[in-house]
Amino acid sequence: MKPWVPPSLRAICRKAMAVKPGDRYATAAALADDIDRFLADEPVVAWPDPWQVRLWRFVKRHRTAVAAAGVLLATTTVALAIGNVLIARERDAKERARQEAVAQRDLAERNAAMTRGVIADFIETVADDQWGQIPGTGQLRLDAVKSVVEKFPDLLAQQPDNSDLKYDAALIYRRCANLYRVLGRLDEAKPLYDQSREIMKKLVAEKAPKEHHTLGWIHHLLDEAEVILRTDGPQPSIATFREALEQAELAVKSFPNSPGPLWTLGRAEMDLADALVDAGSAAGGAEKAATGVTHFEAAMARDGEDDEDIRYQTRLMASLAAAVAANASFEAGRPDREMAEKADRWSAELSGNLAGDPNVDYVRALALDEWARVLGLDAATAAEGETLGIEAVVKLRALVAASPYEANFRPALADILVDRGEKRLAAGQAAESVMLADEALAAIAPLDKPTGAVEAKRCLARAHALRGRAAKATGDPAFTKIHFQLASENYQAAVAGAPENKKLREEAAAIGGLLAE
Questions:
Q1: How far is 304 from 351, CA to CA, in rounded Å?
Q2: Which of 37, 64, 322, 458 has its CA 20 to 30 A from that of 97?
Q3: How many CB atoms lie within 10 A of CB 176?
Q4: In this prediction, what percent of the chain has a pLDDT beyond 70?
Q5: Is 213 helix (H, G, I), strand (E, B) or coil?
Q6: Which residues are paired to 243 by β-bridges?
Q7: What is the pLDDT of residues 462-489, one digit of tens each?
Q8: What angle, rounded to 10 degrees, do the helices at 83-126 and 7-16 form?
Q9: Alpha helices in 127-256 (DSSP H)
Q10: SS3 label, residue 40
Q11: Per-residue pLDDT for 71 more than 90?
């Protein structure tokens, strides 16, 4: 932490992020109260004031009494001094008052800036995936984040023309929205994305926007598009993904010597590729994802002097982009062995250095599954592929168990389980298919909602279809009909969100045919 940060603010930071639960604030409200006390220049719980600070605070808060004492002293002095001494003292008093006012204003501005930094660091820490591994902390994390997000309207009111403050506010709103999103609470994420959008649009509309403002706007668009994809389906999200991609391409031209725009462009291409695959354009998705990998590789070549966190993020995203490209190529009917191998190699390197990191484990599971699918195409390597596929499932199961509120892990696990179940059913292993389908249904069910949640309904449709076919194979007509009916209902919602996905429409039609038998 910077040495110029006031001791009381440092103490608040340490207490909020203490390793031992007993050393932290008992509630999010307690943290918010301490931040309010700091901003009001009052004693804070986290740091007992030394006597000098208490004395100075007493003087500032009892100005009338101090002034009265000064008047008495001045009156006594009048009897003993000449007029020019009085004038000099009055002039000195005014100068001291002016200097104190300037110092107080500067202190307030520094405190506001440091408070924004503390709030940003706190939200980033609370939103970290490591917290998701602690059972029952989901609501606590949200309460903590909301308590600090609520401070920003007051900060903005104090400095309405401060562009850096506006950017910080937009960033905080987006991070809070992202936390809602990863916890599956998409309806609550949308208003915060709206607040972020309103601020960011004005910042990037300036004549010469700063690089971090431009990149922040692009990441906002990508995060917002992700919510649209999950709630309404891939097709409605593509326009926003494309807007982000166009802005990223312009950013690379505007800031050609920085790795940040390249990184952002790689993410935009990867996210659009994923949406294109879900929308039924696997070939287009494969092309975009491959280009994204190229841009991440270029960013990796430039980030040698960056700090460890930036290097980690770049390599993690490059591994994920390679896995997305491998999946898109496989879905397009032209498996890309080189891309699958690249995803496997990069993710293995990360996993070796950062074992237990949930983000790394997630990307590693996806890469393992893609490499396993490629190996499974060759009889000579099929056994190795099966082993890697099991490892991918084990990793995703562990992630879902450790982070039950994390929404990203569940669809990935459900999709892989259904893929494996379909293979088992084709091999005549109906009983094992039943177990895999049931596990997939249990994994995805918490994300389902009566309306929206198109991504969850697509996963549910596939899992119910597998369960119905497995029930039919085992001679269970009652369960066959129940699951085919549920599959049909979920396919209707999924197709509405991806009307151009030919594969999805064919799957839905096949279930309709089975129901009619």
A1: 20
A2: 37
A3: 25
A4: 79
A5: helix
A6: none
A7: 999 999 999 999 999 999 999 999 999 9
A8: 10
A9: 138-149, 152-158, 163-182, 186-204, 211-232, 234-254
A10: coil
A11: no
Mean pLDDT over 334-346 rounds to 96
Q: Which residues pair with 44 in a beta bridge?
A: 47
Please report, for the chain, the start and end positions of each structural domain, with discontinuous segments joined by +: 414-516
CATH of 414-516, one of 1.25.40, 1.10.240, 2.40.128, 1.10.3470: 1.25.40
Residue environment code for 144-174, b if the CB has 16+ CB neighbours within 10 A, otherwise e: bbbbbbebbeebeeeeeebeebbbbbbbbbb
Q: What is the DSSP letter of 304?
A: G
The pLDDT value recorded for residue 416 is 97
CB-count exposure of residue 253 (10 Å: 0-12, 13-18, 19+): exposed
Partners of 47 in beta bridges: 44
Residue 516 CA, chain-centre distance (Å), reads 44
Long-range pairs of 26-33 with CB within 8 A, sequence gap ≥ 24: 27/143, 28/140, 28/143, 28/144, 28/146, 28/147, 29/143, 29/147, 31/122, 31/144, 31/147, 31/148, 32/147, 32/148, 32/150, 32/151
Paired tokens of 378: 């060759």
Pick from 82-86, 300-304, 470-474 the range whose average pLDDT is largest: 470-474
When pLDDT is cut at 50, 70 and 90, the band that residue 91 belongs to is confident
Tokens 């003292």 belong to which residue? 89
pLDDT for res 60: 60
pLDDT for 23 beyond 80: no
Given its phi and psi angles, is residue 41 left (phi above 0), alpha (psi -120 to 50 degrees) or beta?
left
Structure-token pair, residue 16: 């909020």
Whether residue 19 is predicted with pLDDT greater than 70 in this model: the reply is no
Residues 6+ apart with CB under 8 A from 18: 24
The C-alpha atoms of residue 456 and residue 379 are separated, in whole angstroms, by 34
50, 122 Cβ separation under 8 angstroms: no
- Closest residue by Cα to residue 156 from 169, 172, 139, 141: 169
- For the cut 80, the answer to whether the pLDDT of residue 253 exceeds it is yes
pLDDT confidence of residue 299: 86
Place of tokens 């032209």: 334
- The torsion angle over the Cα atoms of residues 262, 268, 274 and 280, rounded to 10 degrees, is -120
Q: What is the largest CA-CA distance in the chain?
A: 114
